Amino acid sequence: MEPLNRERFNQNLKMRVRKVIENYQLFKEEETIAVAISGGKDSVLTLHLLNDFKEEFNLHLLAISIDEGISGYREKGLKIARENTDKLGIELVEKSFSAEINRKLDQIAHLYKSSCIPCGIFRRYILNKTAYQLGADKLATGHNLDDEVQSFLMSFARADFRRFPKFGPKLQQIHPKLIPRIKPLWNISEKDVGTWAVLNDISVHFGDCPYAQKSLRSKIKNYLNIMEEDHPGTKMNILESFRKSFQSSEKMVKLLECDRCGEPSSLNICKACQMREEMG
Questions:
Q1: Which of 6, 30, 204, 229 is most buried, judging by how many CB atoms fall within 10 Å of its CB?
Q2: Residues 97-133: tens digit of each pLDDT
Q3: Is 168 helix (H, G, I), strand (E, B) or coil?
């Protein structure tokens, strides 16, 4: 098999991301983009790609890292996040569960069937709150094609149709304090992201979260990887099916503001504050 040509691979990857940016108008010129960076390959690639488009669109970039409090895991990712933001000259704002909710994930993981539940809720809460405080116009995440398909199938399996409008490469702003999320890697496979990091000798954290193996997402991820190996193109076909079926029926959700903290919420008390009360 002919070895991959790094320059050709990079050009193709950037062209595919540019198509998503243009087709879905992920951002406008002169906007401030906050990039959620964990140090993993997906968020690091997102940071590098947006930095490549920075001059063309006259963007102002900054990065946000969240320390959930996962011993022996998150420290490595944060180190990588600092290295990459320093290399690109991008400001990095660091937040933590400890400072925001007075708990580490390691301290509360046992309270839930899956630690991904409190982790996801508090990460989204802190990311949005921080991006808003920093005056960001958009919040970019490293969700790739695999992530999107997994999330879609998880919601489909749970008959949680309310979540369908939350999928897609760009989420609309439905509340003044809710920063719209964009996903530049929406049609880029996890395999291609890993290939990019290796080909370009980019410092990334390849480790898996120690809590991930117990999650429904992990089971669906393994199943999809087997399907993709036996039937190449399965993941892209699922994504395309989702796009055709649900994009046109997107519903606007009216948001309130949490009575406790004032952050955007579909309930009078947001899930983050509900969990805080449960934890005492």
A1: 204
A2: 999 999 999 999 888 888 888 999 999 999 999 999 9
A3: coil
CB environment 187-219: b (16+ within 10 A), e (fewer): bbbbebbebbbebeebebbeeebebeeebebbe
List pLDDT tens digits, range 249-258: 445 567 889 9
pLDDT in tens, 184-224: 999 999 999 999 999 999 999 988 888 877 777 778 888 78
What is d(CA 15, CA 29) in angstroms, rounded to the nearest whole number? Answer: 18
* Chain Cα centroid distance, residue 178: 15
Instruction: Return the sign of the alpha-carbon dihedral for residues 184, 66, 138, 155.
Output: positive
All domains of the chain, ordered by start, with CATH? 6-250 (3.40.50.620)
pLDDT of residue 249: 47
**265 vs 254: CA distance, rounded Å:** 9
Tokens of 207: 């480790």
Largest CA distance in the chain: 60
Output the six-digit token pair for 86: 């320093």
CA–CA gap between residue 107 and residue 42 (Å, rounded)? 27
Task: Compute the half-sphere exposure of residue 158: CA atoms within 13 Å on the CB side of its CA.
Answer: 13
Residue 40 phi/psi, 5-degree rounding, is: -75, 165
**Strand ranges inside 170-277, DSSP E:** 181-182, 256-257, 264-265
> Residue 237 is encoded by which pair of tokens?
């076909």
> What does the alpha-carbon distance between residue 165 and residue 80 come to, in Å, rounded to a whole number?
33
For residues 12 and 17, give the distance between their C-alpha atoms in angstroms, rounded to a whole number: 9
